[in-house]
User: What shape does this take?
Amino acid sequence: MAVLALAAAFSCKKGDDKNIVVSISADPNFKNGAANVKVFLYDTSSKDVTVNITVLNTPSEGYTALSASDLEFHQTVTIPAGEKSVEHAVKLSKTFQAGEGKFEAVLSLFGAVGATVSNLNNTVHIAVSGSYSGGGDQPQTGDMTLVNNWSVAISGDPYVYEGDGKSYQDLTVSLSGIKYFWMEALTDAELAEYGTLADLAKAWGDDNQKWMAEGDALSDIVFSLNDGDFYVAYPGAGTFKVYIIEFNADGSATGRYGVSTLTFAELEGGSEGGDDDESGLYDVVAINGTGDAYFYFDLFDKGSITNDNLQDAMKELAQMCNEDYESAKEWEEILGPIERTDCMYDAEYNSYDYEELELGEYDVLIVGLSADGNLTGEYNLTTVTIDGHEYEMDDDYDSFAKRQAAAKRAARRNIGKRDFTPVITGTLTQKTAWVAEYLGRYEADDDSGYFKSAKKRSLRK
Assistant: This one.
């Protein structure tokens, strides 16, 4: 019924207040006695961000932690205003001798001025082999073990799958002896945003176990060799590394992986991944006159809302808001605590950017919500005319771009919870002062990667 199902969009207001989050990533192992460390932000800051780095005594199982005296590194680093990252080398001291066993440097962000330390990517583990004696250790990947004979190859051309409108690339696989597995095409920079390869494997394993606890079978989440086809989300034209991570039957990572470097062709109709039929144009609709009320809204075909289906449509919008909230909870480790009201509209956060709409008149249903997600009974059914006139950008455009980047992120599935059933708690009251306004059309800037570091997997199974 609705023109656009808002449940697929992350419309929460956290993006409006610029939340500067600082994270750390590093090479998984020392090579020739050195490893690269990167301290980065999810968004630029107008001020310098200064971060302290400390050494922890919390090595991975089977490893011995290196002490601060075993290392040479910058204990304080500064990301200049307007920049997103700074890199430096951490080195093994000239006096360090590994001897027998496995050793690891554990570096952690310890306080920051001008930013909040990430709850997700605040610590890195850098391994060194027991054969190290002043340099020359062989590359390792923490606790991950490379299986050299695991590989994948491109099969056919990239395409848009009709089932979800997203772009994919089919692959042939040579993965003898693998259990369950998942694959993703990443650049080195994208992998670094996850942290190490071990961090990526753990994040995927955590997702698997969470979704299995919700009732999904592992075979519906990841691949096994019994599947008839294999694919990755299309990353765009160019060269990427496809990482293959193996999982146990309980969804946890085994520690084994494979990697293949593949060159992806340009997708017919455009080189970017995602919805191939997106025009890149967005229509902005705002709601005015709501005072201090929380509300939610969506566009409907003209005349489709009647007295007979009004209450059902109101409950549908409240359920969409709940699904936004459940989806947003996935981001708490990066954005901080998220309240249900963060995913509702109000007088300040009162607009939504729709993918290019057909020109014409639409019904707009606006419903009042209480802080617990139920309907207050207040509503208005009004109209808006989409005529395609140019949207006049203002200083708030940055927040529009961030919300749009969030809405376009790849999603494993619609993760909206259906165990919440909204009810109408008050008397139906039409609020004629609640009206919709069409602000205009703009062309999105696709270089916004605000949520790239928390990219979700995309399935068509």
